[in-house]
Amino acid sequence: MRRLRVGIVDLVSRGPSKALWARVMNANFASIMPQVVGVWCRQEGHEVRYVCYTGFEDLLLELPSDVDVVFIGAFSQSAQLAYAMSGFLRRRGAVTVLGGPHARCYPEDALNYFDYVLGFTDQQVIQDILADVAPHRPLGVHLQAAMHPDHLPGVSERWPFIQQTLRKAPLIKIVPMIGALGCPYSCSFCIDSTVEYQPLGFEQITRDLKFLRTQMRRPRVGWHDPNFGIRFDDYMEAIEAAAPPDSIDHIAESSLSLLSEAHLRRLRKNGFKAILPGIESWYGLGNKSKTGKLQGRDKVKQVSEHVNLILRYIPYVQANFVLGLDSDEGPEPFELTKEFLDLTPGAFPAYSLLTAFGRAAPWNLELQRAGRVLPFPHHFLNNNHAMNVRPKNYSWPELYDHVLGVSRHSFSWRAIGRRYRALHTAIPKWLNVVRAMSSEGWGRIEYFTTIRQMLDRDLPVRRFFEGDATELPEFYLNRVKRELGPLWEYLPPGALMHDQNAYLKTGALQVALH
Ligand code: B12
Predict the structure, then answer these.
(1) Is 46 part of a structural domain of the chain?
(2) pTM, rounded to two decimals
């Protein structure tokens, strides 16, 4: 087989950035799969150039001009950047491949702009593309494995890519690892509702951690498991077999139901420094928070006690909420979140506006059928910059008033001060201050304020939100233009908008390879 020049681009940012939070953290949000694809391409004997785009590079200059094929990994928020990149690379003669959450959620749309669009991706899929490598235009080819791979190359194999990326992280350096795919729960709103839980091999975790200790003085690992710790004892044994207690720092996203005091004790012993549990809502989505039928204020009290307990063992806790859910009504859910914050001053709140990501979850079909999904460009679909589901129980101004209210409460000087005082370790204390004052806190308040004002004053914006007009309001158009910078001119015609009901219309489009 011909030796190919392969480019791999991980789009962590959706455009150039100046934010302090992005400078400190973006390199730590690199994905595992682009690195895995890099390993697989090298194993086939190809020449690989890997780029993790954090928003501080000149993307047009990052890849050599003579690449044969480029794999791009993108979340939906970087879809327009990815489409423009593909346009640019195709003009230079390259074949383009899209993988990652956007490709999984919006394949129908992405096929218009890429030669290959991938769902579940294993080594065979990559080998097939490398063997075929041909332009497929105007419509690309949709390929996917029957399921996730049962093995992924470990940290030592991915190390050149990890090292290259972490050089861009100035303060905190987090190594991405994963121990399992899928989830045993089947919540209908989640991308993993139909993906079986599948551990990737606990011996590999031990090997990877041992390797890391030969490369870094005190490694810091960020676990990408959708729900860390389902096979809790196996994980802990794998970590304990690799290193003396508390010699590696760990960060993980886990559900409250897995965080009993006994588990917390063991997590602390093993160096877990940050946990991101999903609280989601006071009235719905309760099955992962171990709150059963508890709702409203009773749930607030129980969850607050639980999170305060976690904070006695783990220095940093991010509490995740979803705003605008159908189970919420009136001011109460937002007032309860404020109460929770007052009762739990050490937790950093992360809010997601309800978003239906294409074919991510079965529930999205219902929303599309009900005509509730709005065609906001993907660029805004990062859980903050747009909510693409018309709320069931709120008018848009009401909802944004509440979102603003809870955001102002969360990122007021008073809350920042209380959060600072509630924690006892330097990095988490300061990280919270930076987060609140940067794009994650004050930046959002500013943005939500703008949206709220436009809902009253800008008729085209209001009509778009109400689903009465499909023409993209100027505010959004100008923002994408500005944020894509020089790549805007490569965005193919029509690539700004998408059919928000494509999932409902096309049914099962999947073309399984195996
Ligand atoms: C871990 C995680 C994170 C971590 C790590 C992110 C990262 N860089 O991977 C953190 C906390 C940083 C994070 C942040 C965000 N996340 Co997140 N995250 C997840 C989570 C829980 C697991 C993803 C994962 O790593 N799975 C393991 C990999 C191996 O599996 P996979 O992603 O399914 O990938 C398969 C294929 O898609 C393919 N593939 C994946 N990538 C690539 C790349 C290439 C080049 C190729 C060829 C193939 C390929 O191969 C895999 C094997 O089959 C998912 C939910 C879930 N359960 O999947 C949400 C999820 C991916 N996140 C989501 C979102 C919205 C975000 C944020 C925008 C949230 C925010 N407001 O900040 C940010 C964006 C970060 C960024 N890099 O741009 C959405 C994405 C929806 C979408 N269409 O964009 C998801 C699906 C959750 C949801 N709401 O439904 N996230």
Answers:
(1) yes
(2) 0.95
CB atoms within 10 A of CB 437: 16
CA dihedral in degrees (390, 400, 387, 497; nearest 10)?
90
Q: What is the largest CA-CA distance in the chain?
A: 64
pLDDT tens digits for range 235-256:
999 999 999 998 999 999 998 9
In a domain, 20, yes or no: yes
| Within-domain flag for 101 | yes
| Residue range 201-210, pLDDT digits in tens | 899 999 999 9
pLDDT of residue 509: 45
What 3-state DSSP class applies to 112? coil
- pLDDT tens sequence across 161-177: 999 999 999 989 999 99
Domain count, the chain: 1
Q: Residue 514: is its pLDDT beyond 70?
A: no
Q: Is the pLDDT of residue 508 over 60?
A: no
Q: Sort strands 5-11 and 348-353 into parallel, antiparallel or unpaired.
A: unpaired
- Distance between CA atoms of residues 69 and 89, nearest Å: 9
**414 alpha carbon – ligand 1 mean position (Å):** 33
Task: Quote the distance between the C-alpha of residue 158 and its chain's center.
Answer: 20
Tokens found for residue 126: 């990559």
What's the 73 CA to ligand 1 centre distance in angstroms?
10
Helix (H, G, I), strand (E, B) or coil at 410: helix
The CATH number of the domain where 18 resides is what?
Answer: 3.40.50.280
What is the CA(225)–ligand 1 centre distance, in A? 10
Query: What is the extent of the structural domain holding 125?
Result: 5-143
> What pLDDT is stored for residue 287 in this prediction?
53
Q: Which residues contact ligand 1 via a Cβ below 6 A?
A: 12, 29-34, 37, 71, 73, 75-77, 97, 99-102, 104-105, 118, 120-121, 148-149, 178, 181, 191-192, 224, 226, 357, 360, 382-384
Q: What distance in Å separates the CA atoms of residue 468 and residue 196, rounded to the nearest whole number?
A: 39
